[in-house]
């Protein structure tokens, strides 16, 4: 293909994608509204939408009120027609869910807690589960995967999974890219969470969005004016490995005083095991269960549980201050396991930010708890697939 | 203007800019080479270059060897024809220099050391000096200014100038935007330094570039795949205010343990004043002079001077580790006052990075000392003006 026709094809694909994205975010719209919003001629819109209608990707919804009171026909993206699979890899936790394009969850499977010794068997189990889902549901068009960072984009491998190094051996591209008869997309977990917030929460799509993943690891995904921030090889925004105390606790990554050594679910569980009176029986729990039990005791007014929660929240606040000074986001969304600590967590994080940032810089940043209905990372895995569907339509249906 | 013609005009401006940028970076080129490189039709190139030739922005250089041994005429950007003024605002230091488009320095003026009480007089003196330079040299087409961060882009004001708060009162846009008969562009100092590296050092223009400004403040400018990283209001990449010890030294910004409290020229000067035996007489020196004297003694083998330099270098290394985990750059360039410590500084920074980053993440990042002939920030101020000249040509000459 000459470079001229490659360029033409990418312009058509880009215009097609912009129409789908407009319909996705704005719902039923007339051709005239789309033409005006994305600055294409009405003729171009008519041509592209004719093909999308022919393939049933969009549908006509009947008359709607147009500009200047002219009647015009509404177009709608067929969001219920396409399903995607989202796979969330945490450290010990794998969740697989099916969603429609609007992130309505159709099914959810929790795999048994992953044991470091049996990661290859877990990989095989994921493949079998996803294959069965695709066999049972012909509307599934893509699989999205959310994996712990730092994720090396070109290699397809996570460079380090603190406290569960076995996952480092897994090459996600090699293990999964050819495993199914639909395309597979892999993204670092916090970026996947950011994509979910961006797609499903319209008020977060303006400016610069930070999704602050507070789970078994501490992660960050930044979408700055519509673009994910990756850096050179995809290992940027690793807030969990930014040191908050260069003379502090050592981390598996080689650094000293990494944020996640103080406030990840694993770090909290470690602290609980040292003081087992706070959550009796915590040794036998998963990290997530131990945190949930801690937050329940704190909510019930237990002094030791409240103190530990508040100390953890202060470290999450220190991380938020570093996020603000590094990335100057419009909005920081707190999500995953530890965000379940709720309002007291949010209040403490905001307090630390007020104390420790320059007013003109920090006080404009909105900080909220994730309000996604289901776990943000498994929704995030789905969001990775949906984003690719909207951005690269020719991968999913015949556009000729 | 209708939105359609606005779009057309921005496409023409964009094509014009791409031709100028291609000639800027590649030197003498034929129309065919430009057409191929920037994927425009030969007819479009001929049309746009005709106008640029008519305005003397570019010139024909005579026959050159073309593709397939056909002779063709070379085009060249008239880099010597246009001059720009660069103004560097450090805390106590203001430098004003004239450069051509290739950053050859034509003149340099150092203003007297700035006294916090007399900032309005300094502002007036800058205006007078720049006006005189423009009056004396009709080839000056723009003024670029590099100011300390965090710089609030929309407001035109620096939110905090640690250890010299008087500069906070200065609104750079208000004070300077209408002061001259040529356009003025203001940029945060480390971003200006990054632009200088990007423009004048071809091997740094690929991937993701971090310019790590080690001066009276500690700053960072990131150019990721050709785009400066700003965040929501321009206060991103403030590495100097990212804490390396949340229980450490308090900073003017409200945060605790900010990197610049440990390794800025001011912090080094403070340490020297506490141990005046290292650099006798340091109390009477400027921060820059005190640092230069320290590095000279260290280079001469003085044990106490070497120890302090090495301790400072370790903190600069901790900052580099945080830069790698936050931004995953291809290249980190160390510049400004403290980079004069040279090879021992570079060695220690690289050692800390080897110790404290995941090999797959950190060891690919190249770390070098700035090799710009003149101080990178005043070149950076010029680079801000030159970048705008190349990106927005219609602001500088009649394109019709």
Automatic annotation (TrEMBL), chains A, B:
List the InterPro entries hit by this protein, alphabetically.
Answer: ATPase_NBD, ROK, ROK_cs, WH-like_DNA-bd_sf, WH_DNA-bd_sf
Any one Pfam family match given in the protein's UniProt record, by short name: ROK
Q: Which domain of life is it from?
A: Bacteria
What SUPFAM superfamilies has UniProt attached to this entry? Actin-like ATPase domain (SSF53067), Winged helix' DNA-binding domain (SSF46785)
Signal peptide as annotated in the record: none
- Membership in a protein family: Belongs to the ROK (NagC/XylR) family.
PANTHER family the record matches:
BIFUNCTIONAL UDP-N-ACETYLGLUCOSAMINE 2-EPIMERASE_N-ACETYLMANNOSAMINE KINASE, ROK (REPRESSOR, ORF, KINASE) FAMILY
The protein's name: N-acetylglucosamine repressor
State the organism of origin: Bifidobacterium pseudocatenulatum
Protein encoded by which gene: nagC_3
């Amino acid at each position: 293909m000459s470079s001229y026709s490659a360029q033409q094809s990418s312009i058509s694909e880009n215009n097609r994608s912009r129409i789908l994205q407009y319909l996705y975010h704005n719902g039923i719209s007339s051709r005239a509204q789309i033409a005006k919003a994305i600055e294409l001629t009405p003729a171009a819109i008519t041509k592209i939408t004719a093909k999308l209608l022919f393939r049933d990707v969009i549908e006509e919804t009947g008359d709607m009120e147009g500009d200047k009171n002219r009647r015009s026909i509404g177009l709608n993206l067929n969001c219920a027609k396409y399903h995607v699979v989202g796979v969330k890899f945490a450290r010990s936790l794998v969740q697989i869910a099916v969603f429609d394009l609007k992130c309505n969850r159709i099914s959810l499977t929790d795999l048994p807690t992953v044991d470091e010794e049996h990661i290859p068997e877990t990989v095989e189990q994921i493949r079998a589960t996803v294959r069965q889902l695709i066999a049972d549901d012909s509307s599934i068009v893509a699989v999205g995967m959310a994996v712990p960072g730092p994720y090396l984009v070109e290699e397809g491998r996570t460079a380090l999974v603190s406290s569960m190094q076995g996952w480092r051996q897994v090459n996600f591209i090699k293990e999964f890219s050819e495993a199914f008869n639909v395309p597979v997309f892999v993204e670092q977990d916090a970026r996947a969470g950011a994509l979910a917030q961006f797609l499903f929460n319209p008020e977060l799509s303006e400016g610069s969005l930070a999704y602050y993943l507070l789970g078994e690891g501490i992660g960050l995904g930044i979408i700055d004016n519509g673009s994910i921030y990756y850096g050179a090889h995809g290992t940027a925004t690793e807030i969990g490995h930014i040191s908050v105390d260069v003379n502090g606790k050592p981390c598996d990554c080689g650094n000293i005083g990494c944020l996640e050594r103080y406030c990840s679910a694993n770090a909290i569980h470690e602290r609980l095991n040292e003081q087992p009176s706070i959550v009796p029986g915590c040794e036998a729990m998963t990290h997530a269960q131990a945190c949930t039990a801690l937050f329940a005791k704190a909510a019930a007014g237990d002094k030791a549980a409240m103190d530990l929660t508040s100390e953890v929240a202060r470290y999450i606040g220190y991380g938020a201050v570093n996020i603000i000074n590094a990335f100057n986001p419009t909005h920081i969304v707190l999500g995953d396991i530890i965000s379940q600590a709720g309002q007291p967590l949010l209040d403490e994080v905001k307090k630390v930010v007020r104390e420790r940032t320059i007013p003109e810089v920090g006080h404009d940043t909105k900080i909220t708890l994730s309000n996604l209905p289901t776990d943000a990372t498994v929704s995030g895995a789905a969001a990775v697939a949906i984003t690719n569907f909207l951005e690269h339509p020719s991968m999913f249906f015949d556009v000729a």
